[in-house]
Amino acid sequence: MQTSTQAVFGQQARLLKQAHQHWEHGLAFSKKAQWLAAVKEFDKACKAVPADTLFRLNLARALLRSDQAERAIEETRRIMEQEPGNLLARQFMGECLSQVGRHSEAASYMLDVLPGMKPSAEYLQILGNTLFSAQRYKEGIQVLFDALSQDVTHAMSHYRLGICFNAVGMKAEAIECLTTALTLGLDGGELAAQSLRVFISRELCRWDEAALEMEEVNQLLDALTPDSVNWSSVFAAVTLSGDVGRQLRSAQACANFYAHGVKPFAPRAPRPLGQRLKVGMVSCDFHHHATTILLAEVLEKLAPERFELHLYSHGPDEDSPMRRRIKAVATQFVEVGDWSDQQVAQKIRDDDVDVLIDLKGHTVNGRLGIFAYRAAPVQATYLGFPGTSGATYIDYMIGDAVVSPLSEAPHYTE
Fold first, then answer.
1. Deepest of 105, 106, 373, 383, by most Cβ within 10 A of its Cβ?
2. Is 45 exposed, middle or buried (0-12, 13-18, 19+ CB in 10 A)?
3. What pLDDT is stored for residue 1 in this prediction?
């Protein structure tokens, strides 16, 4: 019996040693951002010692970094089933789900903490951002206040609190939060915060420091180049500045931000057009909204024998007469609100869309990131934002002689 027990312990010790070696190799690959190699090593560690949650969490992280989000979610779910109180796993589950566009589900996971547990400031910061992305602004405000109660110097929490306040119409509070964020320093986010702060100030008719505030915005815009990668409140910048060069640079920087890290799909093989042109449109405004009110009759006049119409909606699923009206003329109407940009782009590629049209541009809840994947051979922007997208992956802007006269062509990238 003693010999048998010693053998078992010996076997366990060898497995643990091997698992630890694979884990260390995985960490080394992770530091070099060699994520696929790291996945292999962490996988071996988990197979040797399946109950070790540290090994499995490292595996999940490597999977997420190697664009295997669904498997990362499954591995993280296994940890949570084993350790429901593991806040690190719950936080990472939120990150995984957010990356694939399932923001509301991510927020629900992170909110579901066991009684008596106290999430860290970092946990609350991530949760606040997730709630904002899920458009659950009031919950986001409360969580971000909790985050700031633990770390009042976290500039991004002040910024996110400001955009949550703005989303619920609390403009003055939004300005205060954005001002605090700028004072603390946003490390690359100054243009987005400053342009939004000035835009809201104009909404409130605060003119006392208008000239100074615009000078600060202009200095940030002048520092941009066509290759800059910078999140920017383009709508605010375009509204505030009449300088077409600054407007263009702002749009380019933001379009580059959407495309950063995206690997475009391989070009679709050339082929003869079918009897019907497949046209896809992407928007969150396929309901009782100005965009759809203007668009509905246009879609109804498309000849069905010449066009297939594929509508991809990432907005609210409400049953308004206007929504029913456009659904009636669509060949396909797809709800993609909880999908990642890549998942939407893949669906569009699978649907073999010939011409893909963005109806949002640089307006609230726009998703230019979908277009960065080059899902369709021809991509255009129309109606929602009459300025340039600034995106190398948008080929055309559909306008007219009033909205976009040809004399302004040099200031468009399309």
1. 106
2. buried
3. 52
Nearest to 299 by CA among 335, 345, 331: 331
8 A C-beta contact, residue 322 and residue 292: yes
Question: Three-state DSSP class for 77?
Answer: helix
CA-nearest of 334, 196, 193, 343 to 262 is 343
CA distance 63 to 275: 42
- Measured between alpha carbons, how far is 207 from 164 in angstroms, rounded to an integer? 24
Q: Given this model, what pLDDT does residue 10 score?
A: 60
What pTM was estimated for this model as a whole? Answer: 0.89
Identity of the residue numbered 277 = L
Rounded CA gap, 408 and 392, in Å?
Answer: 18
d(CA 376, CA 353): 6
Provide DSSP, 219-244: HHHHT--TT------HHHHHHH---H
CA distance 7 to 84: 33
Phi then psi for residue 230, to 5 deg, are: -155, 125
- pLDDT-flagged residues of the chain (< 70): 1-10
Would you state the torsion angle of the CA atoms of residues 263, 266, 272, 275, taken in this order, to the nearest 10 degrees? Answer: -40
Angstrom distance (rounded) from CA 248 to CA 254: 10
CA–CA gap between residue 268 and residue 125 (Å, rounded):
41
List the strands of the sheet with 355-358, edge to edge: 332-335, 307-313, 277-283, 355-358, 378-382, 396-398
Residues with Cβ within 8 Å of 290's Cβ and at least 6 positions away in sequence, in order, are: none
Q: What is the pLDDT of residue 305?
A: 95
- Asked whether the CA dihedral 368, 374, 375, 381 is positive or negative, the reply is positive
Distance CA 236, CA 171 (A): 14
pLDDT at site 100: 86
